Amino acid sequence: MEETLKYLEENLEPEHFKKLADLGQTDMSKFVAMAVKLCKPASVFIATDSSEDREYVRRRAIELGEEFELAMEGHTCHFDGMQDQGRDKENTRQLLPPNVHLGEHFNYMLRDEGLEEVLGILDGAMSGKEMVVRFYCLGPKSSVFSQLCCQITDSFYVGHSEDLLYRPGYEEFLHAGEGVEHFRFLHSAGRLENGVCADIDKRRMFIDLQDNTVYSVNTQYGGNTMGLKKLAMRLGIQKGLREGWLTEHMFIVGVRGPRGRKTYMTGAYPSMCGKTSTAMIPGQTIVGDDIAYLKKIGGDVRAVNVEHGIFGIIQDVNPEDDPGIYDLLTSPGEVIFSNVLVKEEKPYWLGMGSEIPESGLNFSGEWHKDNKDAKGKKIDPSHKNARFTISLDMLENCDENLDNPEGVPVKAMIFGGRDSDTSVPVEQSFDWVHGVITKGASLESETTAATLGADGVREFNPMSNLDFLAASLDTYLQKYLEFAAVLSKPPKIFAVNYFLIDNEGKYMTGMLDKKVWMLWIEERVHDEVGALKTPTGYIPLYKDLRRLFKSALGLEYTEDQYKQQFTVRVPEQLAKTMRTEAIYRQEWGIPEVLFSQLDEQRKRLEEAREAFGDYVSPLMLSQGL
Questions:
Q1: Residues 137, 197, 273, 398: which is the catalytic one?
Q2: Do 506 and 598 belong to one domain?
Q3: 81 in any annotated domain
Q4: Is 273 a catalytic residue?
Q5: Are residues 275 and 301 in the same domain?
Q6: Tell me, what DSSP letter sits at residue 552?
């Protein structure tokens, strides 16, 4: 340790050496020293929780051209490179020791080989640049949920973004005592040309599970570079499964029910499946929109938002469908836009509800509506995965328990995907086990622009968490089944689907209908409304939806809409059941209860087809016809 401190003292300015040494964290100091030796920055900035250090990071992001200011006070914009607009699943790998295999759905490398490769790419990656070291806390501070973290990067855009997204952690480290377990992240944008990453072929995001460390290089897109976000989920999942709690790809909201009641729910949806818009439904409060830690405390499942901000998809945010977010994005305040179109210092994005200019500046450079990329494909004015970054406490509907060290009690868990032809808009499982298996573990979603690759491909994505697992599927499912099954009143499990399409290719449900589904879930949690039993779960009664559409949205809801939306599509459901079973049959050690639950559901569907035909309307079920 003496040698480490001596090296740091020789290579850091006295002010910054003192900031680091004051923490008294041996492992932290060694990590910073390793990063400095490896990446060879021109200088090192150690940031505390002070407003001065925070402002320095924001200012440097602008001075270095990683962001530029817009006309609205506090608004800035950042552009990623043309090939750096989404999470790179192929080059995101977990580093495992020999003889450890998580399964066919995971990208991994042998630990020694992976470290040799990524450290070799990081060697000298910060030459001529300034390194910034940031400290954060995942989850509320001074809580049983708290997880301390250190982010090292040469991107001040990343530092600025994480200042909005996460709770400060320098003071937490200062008072934690020597040897506190923490997650660590080392990122470099690498060699830049025209301000964007030049060596995309050497883009790597490697997660060293053994050492709680993430390495990321030659990328600027937030999902690949903000270590505390999805990259940190692997570390959180591993720790949670080891200790008996869950790290989940879930929002947390407080839904207002009758008589002033508020009921907290979590929801797991893959990217671009309505997750943020559900978390922001008018009339309910938001605790978080993306990642949650869940623990059993005092007989309840309680949850906290890992984050303190939103890195949200901006496409289709408009005053009609997302008034709260839209108002914030068009008002003064600290907001980072990424990969939108800018014209006369004003941002524009797809689906914003107003006319978009025919020219301007975007991630491709000077843009015109006829511009095409190298493959001859038309370039959109704003990328489909363009983002906004804000702090949650900027929102009027931010929940008062956002920073509650005890979290909030979870009464419902919701799973939702992008499904054009199979699942009904909202459905409750029969019980915890049925819900975990047929709603969570069977989740599929059609791909979108949030990850690199083709759109519209149906992908298996259990719990909307497959991309982030740091455990084999058998271990993850077994721990999930056990997690709340021992509770006398576990959270009720629901599934939602906002993307059913009719024969004319039109969505069957409106953008705001999700408010009704959430209100129905809230009333079902408290056993205040009945439900109709189908082969796959409980669905709403028509009379309750008619009442809720009228009271919540001022709309008439017809029996024809009900029949169209809530028909049991037997052939599609059977096909999904067979796809799910086939996938799990290829895995080792899957709990046998998964196959028995799928088999029971298949039998119920076949019985319904024999009695009613391939497409069973809810009215047929209710009348027993």
A1: 273
A2: yes
A3: no
A4: yes
A5: yes
A6: I
